[in-house]
Amino acid sequence: MRHVFIALAIAVVVAPALADDLYQPPWDRYGPTSTYSHWSFDTDAPDPGYILPEEGYNPFGECYLNIPYALDYDYWMDSFEGRQGVWYIDPYDYIEIINDNDPEPRPLKEVYLQITWWADPSGFDGDRPAPEFYDTPGGSDFVIDIEEDLGGGWWYTRYYATIKPNPNWEEIDLWAEGYGWEMYIDQIVLDTICLPEPSALALLGLGGLLILRRR
Predict the structure, then answer these.
(1) Could you read off the pLDDT of 91-142 as tens digits, one per residue?
(2) Whether the Cβ atoms of residue 147 and residue 116 lie closer than 8 Å to each other
(3) Nearest to 113 by CA among 74, 69, 163
(4) Which of 34, 104, 109, 183 has the lowest tally of Cβ within 10 angstroms?
(5) Total domains in the fold of the chain
(6) Residue 82 forms part of a structural domain
(7) Domain for residue 7, yes or no?
């Protein structure tokens, strides 16, 4: 009986990792200047204008998702094309992500955005979700870092962008690339980190070397 209990406990712990959080960022998600937000949309949102992540970490405030016209055009689906919990976004609507940031001025912020989305396999011609910063001075264009075909019309795309310097908060708008193209979104994962001055990084490295030398 004890072995059965241990197996069940392991299954419970491992299960969340089976989602499409496929490539985590090259930094500690729970570090002092990091933020992490994960939406899987497994259940409907009471307020589409204020959807908090199911998992997350933000020591500076909060991160939430807004679908501006969801009450008029868009809707959540319990299941779609073999996936649990999917948001349908009308061709004329978008998803807005608001993320509170480190209030201390820092020269650089790195951003990774993972999106699991669906496109009709019979008509997919390269259209995909297209994130962009809105009213965020210093925000670069998002570039595709990784993209994988998950099968059945489902795709995984990881985007990368930077902000110089980091603002108090940033807004990321997620549009459908291409006129009249709909979006079916199954998962969104946002990871960010604010980086200190290069001189501070050098001091941290020197401190590490001194510790090793003493050992």
Answers:
(1) 888 999 999 999 998 999 999 999 999 998 888 877 899 999 999 999 999 9
(2) no
(3) 163
(4) 104
(5) 1
(6) yes
(7) no
**Least confidently predicted of 84-98, 121-135, 141-155, 195-209:** 195-209
Task: Look up the CATH number of the domain holding residue 86.
Answer: 2.60.120
Written as six digits, the tokens of 186 are 């199954």
Question: What does the block give as tokens for 141?
Answer: 């264009």
The pLDDT of residue 205 is above 50 = no
Cα–Cα distance measured from residue 151 to residue 201, given in angstroms and rounded to the nearest whole number: 42
Report if residue 72 sits inside a domain.
yes
How would DSSP label each residue in 20-52? S--S--SS-TTSTTEEEEEE---S--S-TT-B-
Domain that includes residue 142, residue range = 27-214
pLDDT at 179 (0 to 100): 62
Q: Is 24 helix (H, G, I), strand (E, B) or coil?
A: coil
